[in-house]
Amino acid sequence: MTVWVSFKVNGGPVDLEVEPMRRLADVLRDDLGLTGTKIGCNAGDCGACTVRIDGQQACACLVPVAQVAGCEVRTIEGMGADRARAAGGPGAAAGVAPREFTDLSELQRAFLEVGAAQCGICTPGMLMAAEEVLEGPDAPTETQIADAIGGVLCRCTGYRTIVEAIVHATAPAAQVGRARPSGDARPDAYGAARERAVGARLAKVDGIERVAGSAIYGADQPSAEFLVLRAVRSPHARARFRFGDFEPLRQRFPGLAMILTAADIPGQNRYGIYATGKDQPALADGEVRHRGEAVLALVGDAATIEGIADADVPIEWGPLPPLGDMDAATAAGAPQLHAHAKSNVLISGRVARGDVQDAMGRSVVTAEVDVETTFVEHAYIEPEAGSARRVGDRIELFVSTQTPYLDRDEVALILGLRPDEVRIIPSAVGGGFGGKLDLSVHPLVATAAWLLDRPVRAIWTRPESMTASPKRHPSRIRARAGADAEGHLTAFQFHGDFDTGAYASWGPTVANRVPVHAMGPYEVPAVLATTRAIHTNNPPAGAFRGFGVPQAAIAHEALMDDLADQLGLDALEFRLRNALRAGSVTATGQALRASAGLPACLEALRPHWASWRAEAEDWNVAQATANGPARRGVGIGAMWYGIGNTSMTNPSTIELGVDRAGGLTLYSGAVDIGQGASTVMVQIAADALGVAAETVGLVSGDTDRTADAGKSSASRQTFVSGNAAKLAGEDLRAQILQLAEAGDDATITLGDGRATVLEPGGRPVEIDLAELSPVRGTDASASPVLLGRGFFDPTTTPLDADGQGHPYATYAFGAQIAEVEVDLELGTTRVLRMVAAHDVGRAINPTQVEGQIHGGIAQGLGLALMEAYVPGRTENLHDYLIPTVGDIPPI
Known about the structure:
- Helices cover 27% and strands 23% of the residues.
- It is an alpha+beta fold.
- Strand 3 (50-53) and strand 4 (56-59) form a beta hairpin.
């Protein structure tokens, strides 16, 4: 049954014939094309779909469209349009998303200025919630702001910059500690005199789209042109299965275009990160190894696919006893989950240096700790989504991804094509954190589109995403450390088992990275660190912000505290005494010659450490006197992290081109997943060429238009691709100066079809770019006529059997302190405040660096205090808890 529903959207009238119980979110997105309203859960848990109905915020996924009859609905597209309408600008029509900085509202501008939008998927909902509180009669307090936005989850920012931006929108700049641009000027840092972009708080180059709601994510393409694909997944952790007769299903649902099974895969029905370990099927072939594994896919029109229940599909299941944990998987006589393997131990890792047993025996004090961690869900607010279409003898995918070139090669393998016959076009990425390094919708939409020669899209639901996607590895760690009487570490011994789940995913990376980092950022003469990645019938465990290093850090920092206590030393002083620094030798035998700033980080914390501990002691005395149940303590932790791939090639190629009109374009394969990679590449390339960053356009991630810049993971893009971008800018500069026969001290100006080169005291030399031939491509107007190219591969060496070698070219270091309050009666814990000090080398864009530190702290608090993924039980954002704005302390 359909009814006519009339209401207003962003000031304009809407009359629709719709089913009255359709979700408002779906009507806004699919019928009206207002995809700024995002869907993260369809259950009212994440708040990404927040809109305003008659001035009050509401989750559009929970509102039947009939309920808004006669109402005024306001979406993100209407926010900036207010300003544009007043000026008669491009946002004057209702529902048109603003794309110019001058069209943004004050609130949107504040979000852009202070870096409150990272991946941007939660930003529209956050802005709509914030707008309501800003319309109050008085400037809101932080408590009022937190209450207003408390229903909207953010996984990237740590919320602090969001609160700051909301305050910023109503308060003078001095109150929030950031300089604000004057008038309608964009918040750039280069200015007319072309100040250097590197080191400046340049606004995100893709930031306007994020705060305007106009960025296109994997689920945001117009739905009408696509067939819909839905995977049917196993309800069992381990089972054999076979299909019945599909013909009755086809007869019952004539809109069903395809039932895709493993038998239909054109190429190799196996993929995986490592060439020697491709063990994961695109569709299971007779046996499933974890709950939620896809066994077939239904493809058809949206109404047909929605109308087919899993129970309608003829599948006969034969459940088998699952290996539910690492003990079961390594027990004598345990079934082998993969026939090609000798055991359920996928791989082992090892770093050995010195005689640990002798050194431990000679230690004055020793400490031992056992640590166990559980699965942790990435909980990016954008579930996996994307589409594919066949273009002649090639396949093109539009997908949410962290690694377009790896995706290209994997899809080519599955389809039986050459890599150059596959094109990956990354969508805007609504959070990744490592979870979008693995394939998701890619093989299924690609295969269906290839075989049907029709566009196909898929969007995983939130429970589906949480059931099937990789997780942070559960771990079981035992570690021991020793020190001498002077407080110098003498020995460190570590073993960690990591549950890598049903398939390898990034298990080998975890097993090999953890031993390198296991002893922490400390110099220890004798080390033995071993690991195992173990297959179970749990979900695959992959990459999640650290590749196992955070789990190891829990152990080594607990040991540092224990040893310091036994020796009567201050915990900060003990760490400082043992900190790696320039001249230190790591456990892999690598001499650190520069960029080892942990001592400086610890010194930066010292004033806070002393004063906070004294304040906590005074507070505890007062609580004890009053018989209060709460106590406060102050803790410290330190970290280090190798940048990029471990002991293997890690290259990136970046290109910078100028076209006949004088337009500059950076061709960057470095996908921005919210961390600011696109912005810092532009900053670096602009400075290297010698132009203003605002003049540089960007093509990002498209495998047909960019070179391979490697994965957006392991904190590598700024260092690796940033160096490549620097070389690309320098290469293009050298070409232009050579054409002008000018020296390196000349300035370059591009535009109006010319490159103008001016030496100090000389006359300008003009190069007519129209006279140059395109260096690639067929579109003479848009193809570059000059192209600078930069290639960078950090110097590393393989590790030997004892893990000796140079696994990384450089490392990041950091230290943080936290004040924590514990209720001794209830056992509840809350973090009151934190200070973070990080050695990041050169901060290319301090705002983006701070955002990463804030986001890491928020995810660390989640890991420590609330997050635990339990297969079959916490597969939504209601039962699986991630931090809200109320959980994050001042940082």
